[in-house]
């Protein structure tokens, strides 16, 4: 065995021991190519989701019903931009290039969350996105605070704190609407009917059809399977729906007294595949806007880069 090969064996053994001990991998540590590429894939997809996710709610910024609602929504949408920036920075620590990741998103070579390909039709959607979509994001992302890659785990701590505010503002808006007129209550129910199933799809395909889960969990990037987190989310959401006074659109939803978990109906995985394959209701619009933002604002990056180069 050559000295270089021996080094690789030692490095792999050290990496494996670090993961097994539950310690963090940091940017300067040796890591297998698969670990690095898997992380870039997941973190980029996550960053793109935060940035594209600004669009459905951003559509309501000019039509918020009061100054208070506008200030809350503005803060939330700005937070999502910040989350995208932390995540792109985390991807950069792995050697990825931010502009290249943006190009890959726009050229549809990298994904973003399926959920953001659905339209926000009324102001009740702002509340339901906060409650259900940010609620699903928290459920998925709190365990990522213990992810094995240091910069990703640390970014998730701040992201989760802010997502918690996002969920509460959504629920508070819905409580106000449910205490309002019959038309307002009907708007809330209609929004819940449209967002419930897509929010269950946010957790990804079922475990027996999730190509990345096993390796990702072995490396400590993910801490739970897609189905485990989806079940946790359903269990958490049903009592919240009851308190709010809305009906979740699933006649099969029932508490299993033996397990203490809610059973739920079949998810339409054909719809999920269509949406992540680019055929959702808003995929084209979301990408077109992101492309326009990149192209129209390229001069800002050019100017900032020129300034940085001059003062380097
Ligand atoms: N939407 C789009 N693509 C999805 C998806 C979804 N809801 N769920 C899974 N996929 C993709 C995966 O990216 C993968 O494709 P790829 O190999 O080309 O990357 C493929 O479907 C197979 O899925 P796997 O289960 O094998 O993939 P993962 O192990 O990566 O699990 C995940 C998917 C659970 C989404 C995981 O990547 C994850 O936990 N990511 C971090 C969190 C995240 O990205 N959340 C997105 C929402 S962000 C958000 O909600 C913003 C907030 O402001 C509301």
Protein model, in words:
The chain contains 13 helices and 2 strands. The chain is an all-alpha fold. Strands 1-2 form a two-stranded antiparallel ribbon. A hairpin with a 6-residue loop joins β1 and β2. α2 runs antiparallel to α4, α6 runs parallel beside α8 and α6 packs across α10. 3-hydroxybutanoyl-coenzyme A (3HC) binds next to α2, α6 and α9.
Main sheet summary: 2 strands, antiparallel
Which quaternary structure do these chains form?
A: single chain
Report the count of strand segments: 2
Question: Helical content, roughly?
Answer: 55-70%
Structural class: mainly alpha
Integer-rounded radius of gyration? 21 Å
Distance between the termini: 45 Å
How is the largest sheet built, in terms of strand order?
A: 1-2
Strand content: under 5%
Q: Please tell me what the overall shape is.
A: globular
Q: Which consecutive residue ranges, at least 5 long each, have pLDDT under 50?
A: none
The SSE order reads HHHHHHHHHHEEHHH
Named once each, the bound ligands are:
3-hydroxybutanoyl-coenzyme A
Average pLDDT across residues? 96
Total helical elements: 13
């Amino acid at each position: 065995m050559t000295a270089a090969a021996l080094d690789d064996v030692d490095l792999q053994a050290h990496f494996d021991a670090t993961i097994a001990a539950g310690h963090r991998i940091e940017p300067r540590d040796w890591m297998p190519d698969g670990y690095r590429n898997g992380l870039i894939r997941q973190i980029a997809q996550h960053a793109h989701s935060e940035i594209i996710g600004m669009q459905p709610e951003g559509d309501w910024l000019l039509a918020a019903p009061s100054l208070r609602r506008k200030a809350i929504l503005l803060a939330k949408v700005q937070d999502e931009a910040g989350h995208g920036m932390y995540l792109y920075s985390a991807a950069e620590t792995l050697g990825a290039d931010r502009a290249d990741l943006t190009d890959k998103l726009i050229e549809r070579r990298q994904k973003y969350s399926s959920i953001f390909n659905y339209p926000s039709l009324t102001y009740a959607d702002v509340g339901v996105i906060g409650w259900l979509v940010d609620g699903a994001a928290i459920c998925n992302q709190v365990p990522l605070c213990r992810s094995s890659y240091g910069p990703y785990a640390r970014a998730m701590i701040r992201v989760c704190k802010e997502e918690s505010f996002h969920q509460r503002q959504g629920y508070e808006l819905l409580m106000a609407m449910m205490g309002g007129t019959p038309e307002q209550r009907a708007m809330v129910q209609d929004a819940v009917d449209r967002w419930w199933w897509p929010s269950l799809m946010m957790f990804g395909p079922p475990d027996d059809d999730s190509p990345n889960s096993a390796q990702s969990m072995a490396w400590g990037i993910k801490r739970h399977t897609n189905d485990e987190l989806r079940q946790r989310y359903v269990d958490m959401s049903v009592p919240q729906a009851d308190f709010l006074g809305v009906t979740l659109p699933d006649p099969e939803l029932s508490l299993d007294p033996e397990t203490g978990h809610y059973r739920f109906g079949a998810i339409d995985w054909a719809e999920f595949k269509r949406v992540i394959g680019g055929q959702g209701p808003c995929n084209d619009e979301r990408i077109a806007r992101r492309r326009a933002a990149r192209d129209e604002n390229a001069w800002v990056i050019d100017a900032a880069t020129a300034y940085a180069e001059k003062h380097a």
